[in-house]
Amino acid sequence: MRQSHLFTKTRKEAPADEMSKNAELLIKAGFIHKEMAGVYSFLPLGLRVLQKIEAIIRDEMNKIGGIEMRTSAIQTKEVWEKTDRWSDDVVDNWFKTTLKSGGEIGLSFTNEEAYSTILKQYIHSYKDLPIYPYDFKTIFRNETRAKSGMLRGREFYWKALYSFSKDIAEHDVFYEKAKQAYKAIFQKVGIGHITYVTFASGGTFSQFSHEFQTITAAGEDTIYIDESKGIAVNKEVYTDEVLAELGLVKEHLIEQRAVETGNIFSLGTKFSEPFDLAYADETGVRHLVIMGSYGIGLGRLMGTVAETLSDDKGIVWPESIAPFRTHLLVLGDSAAVKSEADRVYAELTEKGVEVLFDDRVGMSAGEKFADADLIGIPYRLVVSERSIEAGGIELKKRIEEKGMVVPLSELVDMLTARN
RNA sequence: CGGGGUGUGGUGUAACGGCUAACAUUCCUGUUUUGGGAACAGGCGACUCAGGGUUCGAAUCCCUGCACCCCGACCA
């Protein structure tokens, strides 16, 4: 993409109404637009990051048997009354409105009811199970306090998968697979090293749920980490009994602030019971379906990466989710340099390398460098009189101070090599 | 929802109750520049969040509302 076609611009100053680092960086660099507290639009660069995160998650979900679908955002009152979650006294963060014809509707704040309703039509026999449908969807929550930029919003994009199993044993097998898939996701998006499987409060049907907590001072949870075991305990279940049960020693735990970037939860029959979601086994006996839920907020994840992987110059995107793989800067407006940069852009694009081409004219080198650092694309390529004299293109990683000059053919090989 | 704070050009800030609301940046025009946010000159852009009140006079003081930020509560 030519940067001259990109309508967003970087800003020198962060807006005064944002204190959180993630929102400041993402707004300054032109990834998101703040609509109101806790509500952000994704600008072209931001959408590309979101879509890459989505692709990674989709891939991992499909690998463990997930089947993608899309539930509606608007939902009827009746469905929620089955689980007693329609009343504002029970759930206080609803966005509700009325139809012209008179009925009440709500904007979905979670998906269990929607899935239970739909799947009831398709689950009748043991032959229909297990199944693992999921969707990516915009969720609405009327938060009394949206905060921390992208970390806690009123409207956010998430992935929710629900497992429908015949029994606990079958559920447990999948639950573990999902846990591993989640670990892989956090590894791939670049925050695996600071993300811990965290024991948190469960529910009627399981003692614990598992959160994926990413360490950052901007987080709103407190967790206690056992570094050697690679697991953590949420403050909400941090008791001597729980520690003993998990084989953790208090003295070895480190207290940290963290943000819940993912969550997996055994639901048991909490939803299958009110919806009478049941199947007939081989002998014709009916059993309630065992359910589990597995969620990840994509915007929160993107914000967490910006928050935790930035430096004083800007964002440092991991290669896996960067909006572009390379950022090609042309310095100087001479015809020779420009045509060389055009050639490099065409060649890389032809070879399938993603390029954001800073072809803007009349800008100083320093300004282009500063923008590139702020936007945070992993590989910076510079074409200038100097680089041409040196016989190639200057290649510098965002995370490194020094670059090197390589000929175009070599550059193409490097950027198209499988790693 | 409790507590605290803040609302001024697109953005960041300034302005004693008193002159045409100032400065920087962005943006536009021109000239010169081009390896770490260039220089000069000129220009556009704000009924100071909304509504009420006090006053000869309000961005400034008072009231109400709204929005935003922070701490806490909540977080299926």
Describe what you observe in this structure.
- The chain is α+β, with helices and mostly antiparallel strands.
- It folds into 2 domains: 272 residues, BirA Bifunctional Protein, domain 2, CATH 3.30.930.10; 91 residues, Rossmann fold, CATH 3.40.50.800.
- 29% of the residues lie in helices and 29% in strands.
- It is built from 11 helices and 21 strands.
- The strands form 5 sheets. It has a 5-stranded mixed barrel with strand order 9-10-13-11-12. Strands 18-17-19-20-21 form a 5-stranded mixed beta sheet, sandwiched between helices.
- Strand 14 and strand 15 form a beta hairpin.
- The longest helix has 21 residues.
- It is elongated, with a radius of gyration of 25 Å.
- The model has no long low-confidence stretch (mean pLDDT 95).
- The structure holds one RNA strand of 76 nucleotides.
List the helices and strands and how they pair.
Elements: H1 21-28, E1 32-36, E2 39-42, H2 44-63, E3 67-68, E4 74-76, H3 77-81, E5 95-98, E6 104-107, H4 112-120, E7 133-140, E8 155-165, H5 168-188, E9 195-203, E10 206-215, E11 221-226, E12 231-234, H6 240-246, E13 253-268, E14 278-280, E15 286-288, E16 290-297, H7 298-308, E17 326-330, H8 335-350, E18 355-358, H9 365-375, E19 379-383, H10 385-389, E20 393-397, E21 404-406, H11 408-416
Parallel strand pairs: 3-7, 9-12, 17-18, 17-19
Antiparallel strand pairs: 1-2, 4-6, 5-6, 7-8, 8-16, 9-10, 10-13, 11-12, 11-13, 13-16, 14-15, 19-20, 20-21
Helix pairs in contact: 1-7, 2-5, 2-7
The structure holds one RNA strand of 76 nucleotides.
